[in-house]
C-alpha cells in the first residue's frame, strides 16, 4: 500500500513527460521546415518573380489557415482591438520583410541572405532604444556589438563583391526587412491580444498578399506567364501551405507551452538549417570569413535572447 502514492505520481508524470517530448519534436519539425523553405524559395525564384512568389506564399497559406479555423469553428473577423497587430504583422513582418527578402535573394547567394535576414534580434535592441526609449542593458549592448561585428565581416569587401549587380540593393533590402520585422516584434510583445495569434494569422497573411499582388502586377506583369509545371507546384506547396501555414500552426499550438527564452533559442536553429541546407542543396560555398561572421552573428543573437530573459 505504501507504494501506491509513488505509482500514482509516476503515472501522472508520464503524460506530462510525453507532452514535453511531443512539443520538442513538433518544434524541431517547425525549425526544419522553416529552414528548408529558404533553399526551396531560391529554387522557385528561378521561375517565379519575387513579388509574385511572396504573394502566392501568403495567399495560399492564408487559404489553408482559413480552412483550419473554419473546421475548428473558430473562424471570425478580427476584433477591433486586434486591428493594429494585424496591420503591423501583415504589412511589416510579412509583406515588407518577405517581399524585400525575396527580391534580395535574386541578387545574392541564399546563405548570405538567410544570415542577414535573421539579424532581427540585434535590430530589436536598437528599435527598443529608439522607439520605446528603453536604454539597452550591458548584455544587450554586448549582443549588438558582437552581432554587428559579424555582419561587418559578412559584408566586408574581402567576403562580398560590392561591384556585383544588385549587391548593394540586396543587402539594403535584407537589413531593411529585418529592421521592419524587429519593429513588428516589439509591437507583438506589447500588444494586448483579444483573439489568439492563430485566429489572426490568416487575416495578416491576406493583408500581406493583397498589396503584394498589386505591386507584383504593376512591377512584374501578369502571372499568366509563369509556367506552373509539377515541379514548381511542389515547391509552391512546400513554401506556402507547409512551411508557412503548417509551421504557424505548430508555433501557435506548441510555442506557448515553453518559455519565451526557450522559443527564442529554438528559432535560432532556423538560419542554421537554412544555411546548411543551402550548402547541401544549392551548392553555396562558405568561406572561413563567412563562417567567422556567422559565429559572431549567432553569438549576438544568443546574447540578445539571454539579455531579454535577464531583463524579464
TrEMBL record:
UniProt feature coiled coil, ranges: none
Per UniProt, subcellular location reads as: Membrane
| Membrane topology annotation | Multi-pass membrane protein
Keyword RNA-binding carried by entry: no
Q: What is its main location?
A: membrane
Q: Give the record's family classification.
A: Belongs to the EamA transporter family.
Q: What is this protein called?
A: DMT family transporter
